[in-house]
Design a protein that fits this description.
The protein has 606 residues and is α+β, with helices and mostly antiparallel strands. It contains 18 helices and 16 strands. The strands form five sheets. Strands 1, 2, 5, 6, 9 and 10 form a six-stranded antiparallel sheet that branches.
């Protein structure tokens, strides 16, 4: 097998944990997308032939004047199933390869009202890397075949009308259930620049039984090209949703995810009114448009992200990070932002800025690109919320991980990445590599907005399959010093070839004499609890400058006794005043809670 070795490089300060660009906020308005009707019944056949036949007459303004309209026309929340997440087996001692796979997006936003318009087509991108384990691990791309198979999902063409209208939307007739390059829900990934990719993999958020499932899984397999022998296999989530907030302002709400025909028609009417277009008439005639046909990077109109955010920023003024939730799905069943940053209490604005500033940065870039008149018109209605707002080109310049992380010290609690953009497309998180220029950042950390460990509404660890497969705990691959996933000989953890890694901090919790722990010991991060008075946990016996542990004589030094408040275990896991109880209470209150399961602190062996 030929492979390129991952040689150490000088420690840069490139970062691997980022909240990269909030994917073109589908901010419900002018060009936002609507859901396609799912498998129309016979009674709806007439509507299929005439997409406007069942359009209701809108009773609300096309665009809301006030955010208060968000309380109207909302889809009713659906029950969220707690799915069983299957963790593939892995032989940590005998395995010769590690297969890492990831989606290029933490949540793919797909428009499904394609008889009206298409914001994003119904497909996503899968990426993978095969690592040969050893003293010096190597990325392998030669002599191997990587294949994928989406698991138990419905026919995309049965849930979307994109293929029916593809001549107008894509410029050519596409084969149903196939992407632009002919890929289906089973296929082979192509290797390029040390990464295997399946671009344009057709997918809609509906399981084979018709239920809404925004977290489908895909099985990925690596085989020897000559013998066909399986070298490694894994599974990963490919997040995709049609749950958008357009109806909050545009009217036409309905049960379940997706946009109704009324909502989609209202959006086109608003666009025609404000921009002098004839999109509604074109769609009625069977020729809907894809937004990128006018708002692509190489088009005469402003880029789509700048247009969407620039227009809607004036409609949702003075709000905090909740303005993002008007359009992006944050409530069950879809969680757009569910990674470790979210769990630690960060919000969208920490990286992307408040909506007004986010929009102004995008519009400034459009000004510089020669689209000054259009940008000036929108900017005149937006009042900035912060200080300096540097220009940013959507999808090319995103919040840089180094805005908060330096990989020598841990980020400060008030660290902000807004305005600290990467300057090259290769610096965008889903394109970024480690210091060896070989290993993709997302291979170890998962995609932006779902950085390991992520809490998934459809099952706590549905996003954490690979960390649990290879390490038995939900954190970044190799995190917590578990370099043995790829390195057969322990490397110098502090001189990592991937990126500098802060030295673990905290006090190792000591066990009292006679206590037999059932789990490995845990390092308690005192620094993370600096906002708490020491006496909150150490009670009145604590004296500044003196050591006092849970197992100090006379405290929680009992080695047994489940009901005894002085039983050592109860200091951490009791139902009264304990670490676990505090974390659970914070989580129940919707606050940053930290770990709430055993695997969040302990190396769980499965």
């Amino acid at each position: 097998m030929a492979g390129k070795r991952m040689f150490p490089a000088p420690a840069s300060r490139w970062l691997l944990l980022s909240l990269v660009g909030l994917a073109s906020l589908a901010l419900a308005g002018l060009l936002a997308f609507a859901p396609a009707s799912a498998a129309p019944a016979k009674a709806d056949q007439g509507a299929k032939n005439d997409p406007w036949a069942k359009r209701a007459v809108a009773a609300k303004p096309a665009v809301a004047a006030k955010p208060a309209m968000a309380a109207q026309s909302q889809a009713q929340p659906q029950p969220v199933p707690n799915l069983v997440t299957y963790i593939p087996p892995w032989d940590a001692l005998g395995a010769k390869y590690v297969l890492l796979a990831w989606s290029d997006s933490g949540m793919r936003l797909v428009s499904d009202c394609d008889q009206f318009f298409s914001l994003e087509p119904p497909w996503t991108n899968l990426r993978a890397q095969l690592i040969k384990r050893g003293q010096r691990p190597a990325v392998v791309t030669q002599g191997v075949v990587l294949s994928y198979a989406v698991e138990r999902m419905a026919s995309p063409a049965g849930k979307s009308r994109y293929w029916e209208f593809s001549p107008s939307l894509a410029g050519r007739q596409l084969t149903p259930d196939s992407g632009p390059d002919g890929l289906g829900q089973r296929g082979v990934l192509k290797a390029a620049d040390q990464v295997f990719s399946a671009e344009g993999l057709p997918l809609m958020p509906y399981a084979a039984d018709g239920t809404f499932l925004p977290y489908p899984t895909v099985a990925v397999e690596a085989r020897d090209a000559a013998s066909g022998q399986i070298l490694a296999s894994t599974r990963v989530v490919l997040p995709v949703t049609t749950q958008l907030g357009c109806a909050k302002c545009h009217g036409g709400g309905k049960e379940g995810p997706g946009l109704s025909a009324e909502t989609a028609a209202n959006i086109l009417k608003a666009h025609d009114k404000n921009s002098g277009t004839k999109l509604a008439a074109e769609a009625r005639a069977g020729h809907p448009r894809a937004c990128a046909q006018c708002h692509g990077a190489d088009k005469s109109e402003m880029r789509l992200s700048a247009s969407l955010h620039g227009f809607h920023a004036s409609k949702l003024p003075g709000l905090g990070a909740e303005s993002c939730a008007f359009c992006h799905p944050v409530d069950p069943p879809t969680g757009f932002f569910r990674g470790v940053h979210h769990q630690r209490g960060l919000d969208c604005a920490r990286c992307h800025g408040l909506l007004e500033d986010h929009a102004l940065g995008l519009l400034k870039a459009e000004q510089a690109a020669g689209k000054k008149d259009d940008a000036d018109k929108l900017m005149a209605n937006i009042k900035p919320r912060g200080g300096d707002i540097p220009p940013r080109t959507a999808w090319t310049m995103e919040p840089d991980c180094n805005g908060c992380h330096d990989f020598i010290t841990r980020p400060k609690p008030d660290a902000v990445a807004f305005g600290k953009w990467n300057t090259k497309a290769s610096g965008v998180f889903h394109q970024r590599r480690d210091d060896t220029r070989s290993l993709a950042c997302a291979a170890c950390h998962s995609p932006a907005h779902a950085i390991y460990p992520a809490l998934n509404p459809y099952g706590r660890d549905r996003d954490n399959i690979q960390p649990l497969q290879y390490m038995g705990q939900a954190k970044a691959i190799g995190g917590g010093g578990q370099c043995g996933v790829c390195h057969t000989t322990p490397p110098d953890y502090q001189a990592s070839a991937h990126h500098p890694i802060p030295e673990p901090r905290g006090t190792v919790v000591a066990l009292p004499p006679g206590f037999k722990g059932r789990m490995p010991g845990v390092r308690f991060p005192h620094q993370a609890h600096a906002d708490q008075d020491c006496r909150t946990c150490h009670h009145k016996g604590y004296v500044d400058g003196q050591s006092l542990s849970c197992s100090t004589t006379g405290c929680h030094d009992r080695g047994s006794g489940e009901e005894d408040p002085r039983y050592f275990r109860n200091a951490f896991h009791g139902q009264g005043f304990s670490c676990d109880y505090c974390h659970q209470q914070k989580r129940n209150a919707g606050q940053a809670s930290g770990p709430v399961e055993c695997g969040g602190c302990h190396n769980v062996v499965r």
